[in-house]
UniProtKB/TrEMBL annotation:
Transmembrane segments: none annotated. It comes from Pristionchus mayeri. Keywords: Cytoplasm, RNA-binding. InterPro entries: CLU-central, CLU_dom, CLU_N, CLU_prot, GSKIP_dom, GSKIP_dom_sf, TPR-like_helical_dom_sf. Belongs to the CLU family. Gene3D superfamilies: Hypothetical protein (hspc210), Tetratricopeptide repeat domain. It is found in: Cytoplasm. PROSITE patterns: CLU. This is Clustered mitochondria protein homolog. Its main location: cytoplasm. One of its GO terms (cellular component) is cytoplasm.
Amino acid sequence: MPAATVDKKKEEVVEVGEAAASVAVEKGSPKENRDSGHESSEAGTPDAERAMTPEMKEGEVIEEALYILHIELPSGDKFDVQVNNTEMLQEIHQVLLEREGTCHRTCYSLQLEGKPLDHFTEIRNVPGLKSGSTLVVVEEPYTLREARIHVRHVRDLSRMPEQGDAASAVDGMSLSYLPFVGLGEKKTEKGEKEKTFEGLPPEYVLPGTKDRSLSLIIPNAAIAANKTPYALKNLGLSPFNPPIPPRKLKGDVLYLFVDTIEKRRVYITCCTQGFYANGSDEHSFKPTPASGQKNAVYHSLVDLIAAVSPIFKRNFTALIKKRVDRPLLDRLPTPYPQFAWLAPPTEASEDALRADDATQPHRVGIEDHLPGQIRDWNEELQTTGEMARGNLNERLVRDRSIFKIHSDFISASVKGAQAVIEGNVMAINPADDPKTHMYIWNNIFFSLGFDVKDHYKEFGGDAAAFAATSADLQGVRAYAAVCDETKLATLGMAIVDYRGFRVTAQSIIPGILEREQEQSVVYGSIDSGKTVVSHEKYHELLEVAAKELKMLPHEVWNGKEGEEAEKVKLFTSFETKGIIGNDSRYYVLDLLRTFPPDVHYLPELNRVSDHAKEAGFPHSFPHKLVSYRHELVNAFVESRYMMFVRIATYHIQMKAKDMKEKAVADGTEVQLSKEQSAEINADAMKKAAEAVHSLDPEEFDIRFNPDCFSTTVKHVEEENLEAQRRLIVDCGEFLLTQQIPGLIADLVDCTVAPMDGEALVEQMHARGINVRYLGHVAKLAPTTVAWLRALIGSELVVRSAKHVFRGLFQSVKAEKTAAAAAHLLSCLLGGEGGVDSVAEPSKRKSGKKGGVRVRASTAAEWEMTSQKSLWKAICDDASFYYNYELTVSSADGLLEDWGVQKTALLRRMCRAFGIQLLAKDYNLSTSSRPIFVEDDVQNVYPVTKHREPEANDAKRLFTRGTQEMANGRLKEAYEYIAESVNLMTSVYGAMHGELAQALRSLARLSYILGDPQDALAQQHRAAVMAERCYGLDHAETITEYVNLAHMAFSNLLVPTALKLLYRARHLLMIAAGESHPFMSTIDGNIGVILFAVQEFDLACRFIQSAERIAAAAGETKRLKSALLNHVMARAHACRGDFRTALAAEKETYTIYSALFGAEHDKTKESNECLRQLTQQAVQFQKRMQDASKGTTNLAQLLPINSQQPSLSTIIDVLNVVNGIIVFSIREPSGEKEEAVGEKKDELSIEEVKEETKLEDEALD
């Protein structure tokens, strides 16, 4: 029951909260956390298993302590390092890699009293190691493996990461902006002239501007930083490798060459003892030491090159200093590849090692570290899932291992999918049709999203095969969440869309490739339900999963005839297959029918509710593999349970009332026996069960049979298929009558305001609404809400265009990829009159480059596409997929009819399909020529879907913290959320999107508790993580910029706050346009801060814009409007425009009077302000009259003395604008409790709730 589930969750949270006090993670607030953020890649490997304490008993609490260790370097220098005794010795190696003097050393060991120590041993497990011990860094002999690692490390250190690589997610890099924006402000030295105020807005962010500059998304400072001089021109392997046997016997390991900035080539020999310059030149090879270098053997390659190249020594020192000074969060890799849709201009640079690596498609990335080995992804994923989780520490180790291996698996899957589509991997079935090819690369199985062997022929062919992968992934996500309680195993899975193809990457079940499918499957069906098999062990394992996933166990016939015919019990759909691997694990796969079918898009069933028929359902759809989402199933069951409780309670109350009235009439007392009470309750339960269509007539039972509409599998006669089908129809009606109208109501009320189509889809999915209902949402959404209409119209077009692009790109040759992308984008965004097909023969003769187009007879499909044909295909697709009739023929028509601006359409299309453009300004209004050319397309990158493992204990603590915050217990909330941040850091490392959200909450709590400096630090971390993990212009990043600006202003960093707000405004204009409701918040912030620095003209302009946008969006937060009008009145008064000032203040007074009455302090304050403004207006008018008579100098007209609000008043206004309302709670004794939530004011809680319409989670 849901109620019992809630109680269970509460107990789990309390357990986690108590255990977290003693867990082996950094204690104190996150600002004290000294974790380097580097995650060990060995988690879950045999090496890592040695880190566990052998003597540790189950449930024993780890005793942690801080050790001060002395580190002695080979040079004799010493330094101290503070570490936690539960960390591995690997952390000390990480410290050495981050130190300026030791970062270039790789081949060494740490020794204690002459004994080498294992890197993967926990410090507390090292015999004899205690606080105050000395660890000696001892140089070790080089092997070929160690030499290659060292050479590549030196190559990486000798050049800064390039922004182009960051835009393409190379080595986990991603673009960032905040590291180039200082949070501090330089103080003016004595005698130095004060500079002009740096916070004035640039032209491109002023209200009403039409400029949408794309070149400014990537800051110029980042591009400038990318031009840092290299320390080396080139470093590579000599063609004389490998050493011949006689030289190998003398210690030669590797031969190198180095091209220095001085244009000198140095030939180097790596021997077991280190590196030395040999006597080779351009014409001869001599691996022995060069003349004069007899004894010059350097253990580090850096020391050798520094000895022969002064420029290297100078530049390398500068690079290392810059690298050390670079913020840690800007250096850490992201958990998953994060590509950017805009990239800075890049130039090819000489790099022999990179060329060697990138031109070997068989390389998987671990050859230097684990030569001759390949990772067994399935074994790693399953082993980590089976790790112990008896106490909090064990769960943290398990979650960290699962997350790290899953992150590595996704990165490998993306790299492998690109190699497959680019033709660099051989198919395991090369003789078959290319669409049916399957591949194995890096121990990962890859398949394409096409119908293989007509398996989906009856369900929609290729369209069904394409959708089946997404449905399967939804099932994997659902099962992965419940498999912790069972021994079921699911496959590692990722879906990669690249260049129009869908590639599914899966880990490999041991032994599945060695036998036929008929021999492998012991549960489910391999022929679409014609024959079904089952297994007792799977019954036992699937029972728990089926209960959690609301699946109804059901019996079917096995499909055989005669005596072999028998009943088979299924806990899932027949499509779900159970396979026992060679490792004796029980795997479930093909989970595409985990959830009930969506009857609204299966017209052949003709089973929809009356309400659905009125809405125009059922609709036809390209495929029949349509199902409801997991979120909808949970919401429906919860809704029916609440209905069940209400109805049962009502009947019990009515029965009690009747009995009481009868007793009163008879003059007796009501006395019920236990049997009578049970009978009344049972009768009420029956009536409630009947009302909610429960499958059990005696009690609440809402579960779904995903096979109840199937025509291929035959159910036994005892199954009540009609009742099961009715539940699915009810679920669909719940979607149409509750979920979709609820979403639209929230959007119209601005309770939620997604900034782009990606955020809109997230909101739909959170409510269980599939994207195929986008057309239905468009029909129901009011056309008067401009921002919402533009948002829905943009996503409708982008989704349809993506389908069209996908079909066209599949026929594009590799060398035409950029040309095809540029042409199709030009067709999509061109103006009326538009872009012609490039396949039409040109009328002009060839004389200039590009004068002749491709002849239609030899042209590819994309070359024959024109603007007219593309938009027709988009409109047809919108009708086919979303049942919405679009009547636009160009982007100009979309702008006119729907208000969709072209930059927003371009951005969303590139992000959805994976097109990376050059970051420059494009003339999107042109219609005479193509907008984009081939050189504008920098890359086509993969778009990935996968499940995301979670830090479960951290999530429970965070949820508990938000509950405490809602109840006003701020210190307790801070402690819970701070501990959740520590646990997230233990699991995810220091870089993750969920961690950013927790840090945002922590920053707000710090701010409310009166620690603005800590709030600024936490919010800065959150904003950097949002940039790195989501993207420079993602909706989450824009929100974090505004929050960071608020915290920066509270620390008096005014120019920094304004720069952040200007950037947020610029990004939001590109993503959604100026009519978006969040623009009102941004403009309100800018206006109030500009007013605080006495830029009154600009302040009025932004505040007026905020009011106009809020009114157009239909926002009802009148308290914010009153405060902004009050600030605007003051600004107009300072400008001498008293008429406008009075009008603004009257609006404030009207709002306060209506809300709080004439006797409220806020109303009185506004009334007093009106009186002062009236006096000042009269005084000003009198001076004007005197000036006209010549009795007063014109210079005396202004300034009129106007009371300037205090800093605290300005901050209070900003608090309300940003949704932070702080109110005081008085106890009966009269003592004030700590204030909570969100606005230092005398307002009552009820008034604040009424005006700000905060979510129920924010105020309880």
